[in-house]
């Protein structure tokens, strides 16, 4: 399916689709490049809320999410770690840090295509709703930054002005679909006449709940489902972004893997009954197998990142 990076018009599911009454937007990798929660890791570290090791673990987790996508187990692990890390933080201090660094940290991460998409749907009269698994104290100012007044985010239990170590509402997975249904009921809207945009397979229930689902920079599993169901696939890109180059690499590998699987199936059918053995890798032999090429390429990316970090440390040590 062709992809668009400009989103000049709403990518309706069918040519005759009605203008959506409400549009539900994911935040991470849909409106902004990367994770909104992890984006503030460095200012949180400077403020003494987290240590360097936590920052590095967060960066590593984000890299894996970009390359491999997020499944329920991965996201549940990240949720538990988030709760443990944040327990005891002063909510007012978190809000202050986010407010002070919002333009510096988040401003450059906003996809211009996402802003145009929001403006387009707003001009059509649609209600714009932001749904994010990140914490309310992070999501609320980002929503204001991009001009969205209605949103749902993960809410933590708070005691005496501090995070108590428990989640009151997790706006993730089925939680996003629940939030969309609640908002639609509040506004008197039919979800069949609403649209949704997201990048992650974990938001499949949200996409299935609306009449006009679209995917943005999708992970591998969601990309495959979008192809099967004929959902629009949008590619949002920031100039000179290493993260976006990783997205493009991931998508190319996914495309090659899908094409290789199809050609392998075709070759298998063509040689059926002939006694020929393709070795499971198609006509090009095992070293043309997209799965192997993909693994090698991802390994190369990781190796390059590690080497780059080592060079940087060496350069600092030589000063």
UniProtKB/TrEMBL annotation:
Ranges where the record places region Disordered: 260-286
Classification via InterPro entries: HAD-like_SerB, HAD-like_sf, HAD_hydro_SerB1, HAD_sf
Pfam family of the protein (one): HAD
Domain of life: Bacteria
Molecular functions (GO terms): hydrolase activity
Keywords of the record: Hydrolase, Magnesium, Membrane, Metal-binding, Transmembrane, Transmembrane helix
NCBIfam families for the chain: HAD-SF-IB, HAD-SF-IB-hyp1
UniProt record similarity statement: Belongs to the HAD-like hydrolase superfamily. SerB family.
Comp. bias intervals (Gly residues): 276-285
Name under which the protein is recorded: HAD-IB family hydrolase
Alphabetized CDD domains for the sequence: HAD_PGPPase
């Amino acid at each position: 399916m062709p992809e668009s990076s400009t989103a000049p018009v709403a990518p309706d599911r069918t040519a005759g689709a009605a203008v959506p009454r409400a549009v539900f937007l994911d935040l991470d990798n849909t409106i902004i490049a990367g994770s909104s929660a992890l984006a503030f890791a460095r200012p949180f570290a400077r403020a003494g809320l987290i240590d360097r090791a936590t920052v590095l673990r967060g960066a590593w987790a984000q890299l894996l999410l970009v390359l491999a996508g997020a499944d329920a187990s991965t996201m549940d692990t990240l949720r538990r770690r988030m709760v443990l890390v944040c327990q005891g933080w002063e909510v007012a201090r978190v809000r202050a840090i986010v407010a002070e660094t919002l333009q510096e940290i988040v401003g450059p991460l906003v996809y211009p295509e996402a802003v145009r998409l929001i403006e387009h749907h707003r001009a059509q009269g649609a209600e714009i709703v932001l749904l994010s698994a990140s914490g309310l104290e992070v999501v609320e100012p980002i929503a204001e930054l991009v001009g969205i007044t209605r949103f749902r985010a993960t809410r933590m239990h708070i005691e005496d002005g501090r995070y108590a170590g428990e989640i009151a509402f997790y706006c993730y997975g089925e939680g996003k679909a629940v939030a969309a249904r609640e908002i639609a009921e509040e506004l008197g809207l039919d979800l069949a006449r609403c649209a949704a945009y997201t990048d992650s397979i974990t938001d499949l229930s949200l996409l299935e709940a609306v009449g006009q689902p679209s995917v943005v920079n999708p992970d591998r599993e969601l990309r495959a489902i979008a192809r099967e169901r004929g959902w629009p696939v949008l590619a949002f890109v920031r100039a000179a972004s290493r993260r976006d180059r990783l997205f493009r690499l991931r998508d190319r590998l996914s495309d090659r893997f899908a094409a290789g699987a199809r050609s392998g199936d075709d070759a298998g059918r063509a040689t059926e009954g002939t006694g020929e053995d393709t070795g499971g890798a198609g006509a090009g032999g095992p070293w043309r197998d997209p799965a192997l090429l993909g693994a090698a390429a991802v390994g190369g990316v990781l190796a390059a990142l590690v080497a780059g970090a080592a060079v940087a440390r060496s350069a600092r040590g030589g000063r």
